[in-house]
Design goal:
- The protein has about 325 residues and is an alpha/beta fold.
- The protein has helices at about 50-70, 80-85, 90-100, 110-125, 160-170, 180-200, 215-225, 240-250, 255-260, 275-285, 300-310; strands spanning about 1-10, 10-20, 25-35, 75-80, 105, 130-135, 140-145, 155, 210-215, 240, 290-295.
- It contains eleven helices and eleven strands.
- Helix 4 (about 110-125) crosses helix 11, helix 5 packs across helix 10 and helix 6 packs parallel to helix 10.
- The longest helix is centred in the middle third of the chain and has 22 residues, at about 180-200.
């Protein structure tokens, strides 16, 4: 069957279309995305601004049209942190549904962590042993660990790169001045404080293979010397804590407007790289992780696999 996954994330609205059946590798047939940075479109009262809602309706409508043109059999549409946490989420979801006919399912943070964990488990297989999976999105950080396809622990924290850039660094994408050392240090302290209860909870959870997913981790790994995207899906990529510290050491001195000049850094997320690096360094340090394998599959693939698992055997 042809499945479409419409992922309304904190940074992008991404439509992924795959041809797949139960028990098979889901092969991408089409991918398109629109950068909205919804995590940065939240007003002081916690509501998604009108401009953000307008852009969301337009992007979802365009994705729906593409899915129809591509003869998608089933469109799985979901929203994550930015919409989930908006105080006007119900109104925004109703508006999207009325204007486009697409009913967005809001994924709780823990379910987001579980779906991502499932994708990583399927990618690496049972030989990977107990997995630790880290995912930094635009609005949240997901952490999951376990030995089965459903993790023993799955948590979500409001430590996304876009959210922290907006709330803690106040970074303007066009700024020619890097955040102050004090702002970066305060951000690290804030991240550490939110990680405290998770570190305590993970104290009795072991793992054999720590893994990272998401655009943020892939960008940081590239900056630390991992293979570029052009090397293909199957290229092995790692991010070490020592390499991450070096990356953090130099990007904190680069103005946001100039970060896009670094190889592997996308224009839409360049100003978020510093906040993402701070979160990555903190979680690796606090969980005593020296090296992460970077997995190309993440939440969207987890949603697809979960849907295929529910199909009746042929």
């Amino acid at each position: 069957m042809r499945l479409g996954v419409l992922d309304v994330g904190s940074n992008t609205v991404h439509l992924l279309v795959v041809d797949a059946h139960r028990g098979a590798h889901p092969w991408p047939a089409h991918s398109e995305k629109t950068v909205l940075r919804l995590a940065e479109q939240i007003s002081p009262d916690g509501a998604l601004r009108d401009a953000g809602a307008d852009a969301l309706v337009k992007a979802v409508g365009a994705a729906r049209t593409s899915a129809t043109d591509l003869e998608v059999d089933d469109l799985l549409a979901f929203a994550t942190s930015a919409v989930r946490d908006a105080t006007n989420a119900a109104e925004v979801l109703a508006r999207v549904r009325e204007a486009t006919g697409v009913r967005l399912e809001v994924l709780p943070g823990a379910d987001e962590a579980r779906m991502t964990f499932l994708a990583v488990r399927r990618w690496f297989g049972w030989s990977a042993g107990r997995l630790l999976v880290l995912d930094i999105g635009g609005g949240s950080l997901e952490i999951a660990a376990g030995v089965d396809e459903d993790p023993d622990v799955a948590v979500s924290l409001p430590l996304g790169a876009g959210r922290l850039t907006r709330d803690r660094l106040g970074t303007d994408p066009e700024s020619l001045v890097p955040p102050s050392p004090e702002a970066v240090d305060e951000l690290r302290e804030y991240v550490d404080s939110l990680l405290d209860p998770v570190v305590d909870r993970m104290a009795g959870v072991g793992w054999d293979r720590p893994v990272a997913t998401s655009k943020t981790f892939r960008t940081l790994a590239r900056l630390a010397g991992a293979a570029p995207s052009g090397a293909g899906l199957w290229a092995r990529r790692k991010l070490t804590r020592s390499g991450l510290r070096q990356v953090l050491g130099f990007i904190r001195h680069i103005p946001p407007a100039q970060l896009v000049e670094l190889e592997g850094v996308s224009a839409g997320r360049a100003h978020q790289v510093l906040a993402g690096a701070v979160v990555a360094e903190s979680v690796m340090r606090r969980l005593s992780v020296d090296s992460l394998d970077v997995c190309p599959w993440a939440l969207r693939e987890g949603v697809i696999l979960s849907r295929l698992d529910r199909l009746a055997p042929v």
